């Protein structure tokens, strides 16, 4: 039985309650003071406007509730010797988490200049929401956090991700009642159907109902309690209520609820681990109802504030100019009796620290919240065992993702004991042809199973749910606590998590600059079922814009790969899985695709990121007349088919074929670490020859990346231009003018002198397009000359 | 009491059950046949490979369940004379909805070439998922639909949007159990807290548990029934169960559940409308448990198919080449006894049509599903009554969104009786300074209220919930059923609905090309609390990329406006609210902002979309030495401040100031209907002078829009480059090199000859930046010379 699960329910004594309250008051004092003070931190003199910050920024409303949770987590961690982590959903309550971290000492250990004494306290206050200081929200800069609390909705998914494969870890998760209205959070409750009580840790959700969001009551706070209980039971939880505004009574109730919850968790884990099997667990949830802005000003300017939405940010906005506000602030701050809580040197007194655990047991010092510290190298096998043999390019076909499935299966198998690798995806692992992994592990599933089900496994490490939000949230939590993973997703629907990946990139960008944060494994996307092959689904499933979205973000974090075949997919995935602190986007097809490069060639090509495919071109060492460039599997096919047509019809034309795997190579070196210098770029694409670029996604992305290049005015890009429907693969490229015939026409139109010289060839290409249109209307399939095409030089 | 609410619960007779089953069998036959057949539609001869489509595409699994729902909705619509609409969540079941529309005749009325006879039936089959035919999903092309079913998650939000302010309408909504796992759907259940039983219609959710998604069981189907009931009760619903696989028993149970549900709805509406007040209603939900792929092949190649995930798409994939599959297909299709259902001419027999309602009562013919038919002009007042007076530019300050609030208040008031205008937003109407609207209406809220609450109103037309997904989904449903609205959102967090707006743009793009679909009101975004003014929130709230996202989409649909002040905001919003079939994105600040243009000037400027601000420049009719361009309120301020600095320090430099309101003006005329010709563009920006462009968002967007222009190599763009944090407004622009001092330095660096001539000025600018850095570290506020700046020429 794990220590985390040790039941040890002793109600706190009056003395202990007194020290818990002292800790809570100290945290409340420090939280409120961060918003207001830049001097006189201990209120050793009467408060004056000169002590007040020039701009009052921050969120008070949620802070006392978070302080209560932190205090009581401290208690149970100390009492039970737990390893615990807390995800602070209402992360706008930054002052609270900073206050507690400072109290327990983890803050000063991380930032020695903010020492646990009066000068440090003043610095703690001054830096908060101050230019050059620390953000107003819980953020990467906050010790103990894996969760930026600015964009609400993802706390519970992050908590589950952290708990997976961490059997000895308790992950508490405070969910604000505003956040609880979001879709991702509403779906996250069902994560408990995927949590294995044997191999995973426990998640303890604490639903904090303080009644209001920015300007409105919250939906959940206004449900009658039986209805809320029904909802939580329907989510698979056993609710435990803590309600009140009298601190002593709430401390007692909270301590009892925490003990009850942890005893229940201990029993669930004991049953599963010692007795095996059993029903799906009904995990506890704590419902904490306390007033918004609790212990703050009850009324300001005649309006109720405590217990209302008016306490959300800064309850007394006019302290600089309004003496009554200043008086109220001083009264409020002094109501915590700071002189009892801190010595004259500013250090917290012993009573305040009585509940605080030791060392890495402190929430602000948990290595799980700085997951890079725990990260181990992923055991990645030699690729040779998985690569497809390629003697001649373009003659054999493989489904690239199926080939990758072999590699992932081995990784799954080799991490079977360590359990630090997970694959997530919305119900599409098999559809995306990665099903080899099921030979090594199953799909996590704790609910009922039927005989007809396949691959469901209480201990499985493939996570499938029809929610991209949960896939993303679970994986983020898993990675940030020091593990590895990959998210396979339909290309179009990864936009569902645009906003989440924004936040993760921001997290990584910031944490990379913090020397104390150890690098974590990259967040790896495999986007498949892509825009060009939506034969079953059509227009709604056609959107290649995630690449554009990601490339707007911090270049030190984002990487985008478009491997054109099976071996290049193996190579870039291997690279992505070894990398740290990146977001790697890999776009690759699942449909049969020609093999162009052997593994060795693929490695070299992927390492370069972009290169000339000499075997496909006709330049023969001279300067080419035209460059045919491609990025993506389908554009590569069309460019090679176009190159073959040019070879046949215009044998004297010197054609260079360039394939781009790493999209960021196209950017200037100054704009991205992978970017090419102009010298490299001109060497590859020439400075003065027409470049016909067939790109997987929106064509203007290539212009956005390459606009500053010497030869940019010669760059002509074809790509997806929102001409989609349910149709054949080749009709899709024709509709978007990315087809081989159009590319040949583009070459003829762009190479000086060819327009008249090759007018007949151009007409033949136009005729082929007409032939396609007629054929497809009659047969519903692609032209035989297209369907049966293969490369020959 | 509305007709929709008339109770009329009579259990169906055996004869009626027989006709209901005939309708259902006919729909099942037509659905299955669409996936397979391109000839021999009535099976008048033995099935041969030549009758089979060359590519088998589509989704069978959900179709029999949707057919059951359609049949039973027909029954109650006919029996009760309801006006009804149905949102088909599992919209991949396109074959089903098409089949039913064809049966009821609405399909042939919409598409006369697909007549309700044998030739039309053959066309119906052949066109399905066929190149040049119709999509495999429910789509704009589908009569009776307001909901594309490709990307799951939004059905219930759409249904609520449709029901708002439609008191006589019943909106049924089939929710697939796969879809039910998504975040947006999970949150949508709480929409019932916002539905006014007096002024809104009813939503009847039908949760269709067929047990499986693509490859997995679904979470909700594997909950024990009491747990599922608790969940649905917790969501505020009263569950009614229909479970089975015996058609007769299921028909009886479904008819009874429909009657029960409609009786309950009638009672709720009667109580609210006739008796007033009352508790929040507990609306019914039907839980329909039937096998996936019900009535299809039980086993294929020895594997169970009916009732499993294997029935998801095409249950018999090998009919072309496998005689046993072909035999099974024929047996399956003949099991519906088509000869009893259709006459020799292919027309459905009377029994099949017995349940089908008349005229616009038919689900495929509801005008609500073609909302443009019902759309009325929005009563928009003269802007003069709301505009701010501007005698001199840059001397007075207003909060633009607060000024807009006045206009919106009037629109709210003037639609008080008509009730066809709604404002949605995630808890931010007041925070975004639009609170004037609360003088005209309240915030929709059916849950408990407390004395301290403000503006909550059972009949309110402002919708606030902390879920961008619900705001978007409600508004889409509202607009597509013929009403008007506006979504005000934090700029960064509108990315949460990236994927939803994709789908809405795709919907509009397609429906614009369908002559029978009448134009609907545009979807209007007001993005405020933007990237430059996140003083309270910092980096997590800083993202201007939604404009980039939207500009990737169909140019016939998307419009992007960045009004620089209050009067321009009024003008573009007025324009947006009058427009049809667009997605208008308006980015505007809520913080005090200088007034630059009078209303008349604003109108002219916004109509042009981009123009020279002569009063701000120094070109005096000649050719300028440099163009300072700006788009967005903060960049406009910095450009004008830079222009003023240049005027003072380099009085001989001819500076042109250009402001861009309509971003799509920058695109080539061929790429967007608002795009400028090169002649226009060069006239505005010159073809050969340096252009320093200060842009609100990611700078490379401007390059992506303008890369093909003659003077593109002279274009130098400043914008947001992910350098964010919690800091002052001016520090934000300095961090991103968008500040006035940097812009002056850019001018000096780019105008030939200035570098040496104006070296002193350049140094003064660099010194000012240093002064800023020192000042902000010391004071935490902006330099007085910046804070107190105003325009003087």
TrEMBL record, chains A, B:
Biological processes, Gene Ontology terms: carbohydrate metabolic process
InterPro entries referenced in this protein's UniProt entry, alphabetically: Phosphoketolase (IPR023962), THDP-binding (IPR029061), Transketo_C/PFOR_II (IPR009014), Xul5P/Fru6P_PKetolase (IPR005593), Xul5P/Fru6P_PKetolase_C (IPR018969), Xul5P/Fru6P_PKetolase_CS (IPR019790), Xul5P/Fru6P_PKetolase_N (IPR018970), Xul5P/Fru6P_PKetolase_ThDP_BS (IPR019789)
A single MF term (Gene Ontology): magnesium ion binding
CDD domains given in the database record: TPP_PK
Domain Xylulose 5-phosphate/Fructose 6-phosphate phosphoketolase N-terminal, first and last residues per copy: 13-373
Keyword presence, Zinc: no
Domain Xylulose 5-phosphate/Fructose 6-phosphate phosphoketolase C-terminal, chain residue ranges per copy: 590-791
Source taxon at top rank: Bacteria
Cofactor dependence: thiamine diphosphate
EC number(s) on file: 4.1.2.-
Protein keywords: Lyase, Thiamine pyrophosphate
A Pfam match: XFP
Enzyme kind, highest EC tier: lyase
Family statement: Belongs to the XFP family.
Name under which the protein is recorded: Probable phosphoketolase
């Amino acid at each position: 039985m794990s220590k985390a699960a040790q039941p040890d329910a002793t109600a706190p004594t009056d003395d202990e309650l007194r020290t818990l309250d002292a800790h809570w008051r100290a945290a409340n004092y420090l939280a409120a003071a961060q918003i207001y003070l830049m001097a006189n931190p201990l209120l050793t003199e009467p408060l004056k406007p000169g002590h007040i910050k020039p701009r009052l920024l921050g969120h008070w409303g949620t802070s006392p509730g978070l302080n209560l949770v932190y205090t009581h987590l401290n208690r149970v961690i100390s009492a039970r010797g737990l390893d615990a982590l807390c995800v602070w959903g209402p992360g706008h309550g930054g002052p609270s988490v900073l206050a507690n971290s400072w109290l327990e000492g983890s803050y000063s250990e991380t930032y020695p200049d903010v020492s646990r004494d009066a000068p440090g306290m003043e610095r703690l206050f001054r830096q908060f929401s101050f230019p050059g200081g620390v953000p107003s929200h819980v953020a990467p800069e906050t010790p103990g956090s894996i969760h930026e609390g600015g964009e609400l909705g993802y706390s519970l998914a992050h908590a589950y991700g952290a708990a997976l494969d961490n059997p000895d870890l308790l992950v508490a998760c405070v969910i604000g009642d505003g956040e609880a209205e979001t879709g991702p959070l509403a779906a996250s409750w069902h994560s408990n159907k995927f949590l294995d009580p044997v191999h995973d840790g426990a998640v303890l959700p604490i639903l904090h109902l303080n009644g209001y969001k920015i300007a409105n009551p919250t939906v959940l706070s206004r449900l009658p309690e039986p209805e809320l209980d029904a909802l939580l039971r329907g989510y698979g939880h056993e609710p435990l209520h803590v309600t009140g505004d009298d601190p002593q009574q709430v401390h007692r109730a909270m301590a009892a609820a925490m003990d009850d919850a942890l005893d229940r968790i201990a029993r669930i884990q004991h049953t599963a681990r010692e007795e095996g099997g059993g029903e799906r667990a009904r995990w506890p949830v704590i419902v904490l109802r306390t007033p918004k802005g609790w212990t703050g000003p009850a009324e300001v300017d005649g309006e109720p504030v405590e217990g209302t939405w008016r306490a959300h940010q800064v309850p007394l906005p006019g302290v600089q100019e309004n003496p009554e506000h200043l008086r109220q602030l001083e009264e409020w701050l002094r109501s915590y009796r700071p002189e009892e809580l801190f010595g004259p040197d500013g250090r917290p007194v012993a009573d305040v620290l009585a509940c605080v655990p030791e060392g890495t047991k402190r929430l602000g010092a948990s290595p799980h919240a700085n997951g890079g510290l725990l990260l181990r190298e992923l055991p990645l096998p030699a690729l040779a065992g998985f690569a497809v043999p390629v003697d001649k390019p373009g003659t054999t076909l493989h489904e690239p993702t199926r080939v990758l499935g072999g590699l992932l299966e081995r990784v799954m198998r080799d991490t079977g004991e360590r359990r630090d690798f997970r694959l997530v995806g919305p119900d599409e692992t098999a559809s995306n042809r990665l099903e080899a992994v099921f030979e090594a592990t199953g799909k996590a599933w704790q609910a009922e199973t039927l005989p007809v089900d396949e691959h469901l496994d209480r201990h499985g490490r493939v996570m499938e749910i029809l929610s991209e939000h949960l896939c993303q949230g679970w994986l983020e939590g898993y990675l940030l606590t020091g593990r590895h993973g990959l998210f396979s997703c339909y290309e179009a629907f990864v936009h569902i998590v645009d906003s989440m990946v924004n936040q993760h990139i921001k997290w990584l960008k910031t944490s990379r600059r913090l020397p104390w944060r150890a690098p974590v494994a990259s967040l790896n996307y495999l986007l498949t079922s892509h825009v060009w092959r939506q034969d079953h689904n059509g227009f709604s499933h056609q959107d290649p814009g995630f690449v554009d979205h990601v490339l707007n973000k911090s270049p030190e974090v984002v990487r985008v790969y478009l491997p054109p075949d099976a071996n290049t997919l193996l190579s870039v995935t291997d690279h992505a899985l070894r990398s740290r602190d990146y977001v790697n986007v890999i776009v690759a097809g699942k449909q049969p695709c020609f093999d162009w490069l052997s593994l060795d060639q693929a490695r070299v090509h992927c390492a370069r990121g972009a290169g000339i495919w000499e075997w496909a071109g006709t330049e023969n060492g001279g300067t080419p007349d035209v460059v045919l460039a491609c990025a993506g599997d389908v554009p590569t096919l069309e460019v090679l088919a176009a190159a073959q047509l040019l070879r046949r019809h215009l044998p004297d034309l010197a054609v260079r074929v360039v394939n781009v795997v790493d999209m960021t190579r196209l950017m200037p070196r100054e704009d991205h670490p992978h970017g090419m210098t102009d010298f490299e770029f001109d060497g590859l694409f020439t400075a003065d020859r027409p470049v016909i670029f067939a790109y997987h996604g929106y064509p203007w992305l290539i212009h956005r990346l390459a606009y500053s290049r010497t030869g940019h005015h010669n760059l002509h890009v074809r790509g997806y231009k929102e001409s989609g429907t349910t149709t054949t693969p080749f009709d899709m490229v024709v509709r978007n003018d990315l087809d081989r015939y159009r590319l040949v026409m583009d070459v003829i139109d762009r190479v000086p002198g060819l327009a008249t010289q090759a007018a007949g060839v151009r007409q033949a290409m136009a005729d082929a397009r007409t032939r396609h249109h007629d054929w497809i209307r009659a047969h519903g399939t692609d032209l035989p000359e297209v369907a049966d095409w293969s490369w020959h030089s």
